[in-house]
From TrEMBL:
<keyword id="KW-0819">tRNA processing</keyword>
<dbReference type="InterPro" id="IPR043675">
    <property type="entry name" value="TrmR_methyltr"/>
</dbReference>
<keyword id="KW-0949">S-adenosyl-L-methionine</keyword>
<feature type="binding site">
    <location>
        <position position="94"/>
    </location>
    <ligand>
        <name>S-adenosyl-L-methionine</name>
    </ligand>
</feature>
<dbReference type="InterPro" id="IPR029063">
    <property type="entry name" value="SAM-dependent_MTases_sf"/>
</dbReference>
<dbReference type="InterPro" id="IPR002935">
    <property type="entry name" value="SAM_O-MeTrfase"/>
</dbReference>
<protein>
    <recommendedName>
        <fullName>tRNA 5-hydroxyuridine methyltransferase</fullName>
        <ecNumber>2.1.1.-</ecNumber>
    </recommendedName>
</protein>
<dbReference type="GO" id="GO:0008757">
    <property type="term" value="F:S-adenosylmethionine-dependent methyltransferase activity"/>
</dbReference>
<feature type="binding site">
    <location>
        <position position="140"/>
    </location>
    <ligand>
        <name>S-adenosyl-L-methionine</name>
    </ligand>
</feature>
<feature type="binding site">
    <location>
        <begin position="122"/>
        <end position="123"/>
    </location>
    <ligand>
        <name>S-adenosyl-L-methionine</name>
    </ligand>
</feature>
<dbReference type="Pfam" id="PF01596">
    <property type="entry name" value="Methyltransf_3"/>
</dbReference>
<dbReference type="InterPro" id="IPR050362">
    <property type="entry name" value="Cation-dep_OMT"/>
</dbReference>
<comment type="subunit">
    <text>Homodimer.</text>
</comment>
<dbReference type="GO" id="GO:0008171">
    <property type="term" value="F:O-methyltransferase activity"/>
</dbReference>
<dbReference type="GO" id="GO:0030488">
    <property type="term" value="P:tRNA methylation"/>
</dbReference>
<keyword id="KW-0808">Transferase</keyword>
<dbReference type="GO" id="GO:0016300">
    <property type="term" value="F:tRNA (uridine) methyltransferase activity"/>
</dbReference>
């Protein structure tokens, strides 16, 4: 299984990170067990400070239709499925066969087969087949693909809907000059910077960048806009 080397690069003071991660309300039951299992296996699921934030946010926004890009073992999909309003649904996209099998096993174990739909394949293709509209979208996938997925996601997100994009600070290196970035990740570094430059100040969006985990970008869609130019 591919490991995320950014997991141990805090973007805030290590003491603050420790406080955020261990002093807030813990999960319970099966979800906590899955969280602990992921931690033992070093599977890069969303960290606990992001879990707590999403829990708070779902209480506030009451989403019903949720879309996720990047299922992994199904932890975040299960978290969101437990917190959508009655009758709510989570649709999640994953292309890694190993992750898909683990996610399906976990979803069945939680008896969530009726609330979570796993779509198997390339998000760039699958997003074009969906109808929406979605109240909330969570994107946690290949970082270099964010600009490619974003236009399709914005077409699917309702006006007033919220998009959360995970891992945008790259272990705190997002603002470094490219010459200091290892060559193997320069493409990601460049694309993320271009992406952030575009969306953080766009007039049709309201955006906020939070130092949770490896950076969580929150976007509210204020109005419809064609972002297809970002694919190029």
């Amino acid at each position: 299984m591919k490991r995320n080397r950014m997991m141990d690069w805090p973007v805030v003071n290590p003491g603050i990170l420790e406080y955020l991660r261990h002093q807030q309300m813990e999960l319970s039951g099966q979800l906590r067990e899955l969280q602990e299992e992921a931690s033992r296996r070093r599977v890069p699921v969303i960290p606990h400070e992001t879990v707590v934030f999403l829990d708070w946010l779902f209480d506030l926004t009451q989403p019903k239709e949720v879309l996720e890009v990047g299922t992994a073992i199904g932890f975040s999909a299960l978290l969101m499925a437990e917190r959508v309003v009655e009758g709510g649904q989570v649709t999640t996209i994953e292309r890694n066969p190993q992750m898909i099998q683990e996610a399906l096993t976990n979803i069945s174990k939680f008896n969530m087969d009726d609330k979570i739909t796993v779509l198997e394949g390339d998000a760039a293709e699958l997003l074009q087949t969906l109808e929406g509209p979605y109240d909330f979208v969570f994107m946690d996938s290949a970082k270099a693909k964010y600009p490619e997925f974003f236009p399709e996601i914005m077409n699917l997100l309702k006006v007033g809907g919220v998009l959360a994009i995970d891992d945008v600070l790259q272990g705190g290196t997002i603002m470094y000059d490219e010459k200091y970035i290892p060559k193997r990740v320069r493409k990601i570094h460049r694309k993320l910077n271009e992406f952030l430059d575009e969306v953080l100040t766009h007039e049709s969006l309201k955006a906020s960048l939070l130092p949770l985990g490896d950076g969580l970008l929150m976007i509210t869609k204020k109005e419809n806009h064609d972002f297809s130019y970002m694919k190029s």
